[in-house]
Amino acid sequence: MRELLDALERPVELLVAHGPEETPLPGARDIDFGAETERVVEEIASLSDKVSYRVEIEPAGAERYPAVLVLPEGEDVGIRYDGLPWGYELSSLLGAVLEAGRRTSSLSAESLERLARLDRDLAIDVFVTPT
Amino acid sequence: MLLAYRTALASPRIRATAIEATEFPALADSLDVWAVPRIVVNGVPQWDGSVPERVFLDRILAPAFE
Known about the structure:
The structure holds 2 protein chains of 2 kinds. Chain A is α+β, with helices and mostly antiparallel strands. Chain A has a single domain, classed as Glutaredoxin. Chain A is built from 4 helices and 5 strands. A 4-stranded mixed β-sheet of chain A has the order 2-1-3-4, with helices on one face. In chain A, a hairpin with a 6-residue loop joins strand 3 (67-72) and strand 4. A two-stranded antiparallel sheet of chain B has the order 2-3. Chain B has helices at 2-10, 25-30, 53-60, and strands at 14-20, 38-41, 44-48. By secondary structure, chain B is of the alpha+beta class. Chain B is globular, with a radius of gyration of 12 Å. At the A-B interface, strand 4, helix 3, helix 4 and strand 5 of A face helix 1, strand 1, helix 2, strand 2 and helix 3 of B.
């Protein structure tokens, strides 16, 4: 993972958003989701100089907490992970970092052409579970 | 999930969010999430499961979202 992160073509900043959290499920109430999220993100950032992180309370652009905003070169391009990225879902966050670190899209030329013609806003939410 | 992130990177018009379903149960319930990944576009549940890039674009760019 360290090698993949070191190979990023541009720096990626991770913004950990803290705020009022939803009541966790019974049995999970001992977990401090916000603190755990910060710990995970800190660990990812420690792997490479290309990845940094900061922490904010209810930053613009966050809807649920905790959340991680993935910012290529510090810019908010609309990439988020809402919740604690653990288990299998850690790979979603790492994947987001690797994609954000690319200077050229990994989508096909045809897809990019279609997206360039998009004339309305789309909010794509993907519900995931860690197992 | 990565496809959604890639489209967000490619278009300033797209925002892509992964939502940990078990951590936000009220929201997941309201959108009838019982299988993952469940894809919701502009607040409307669309489909469950991973699809190829071309199909993903076909679906998110469908006229229904105009």
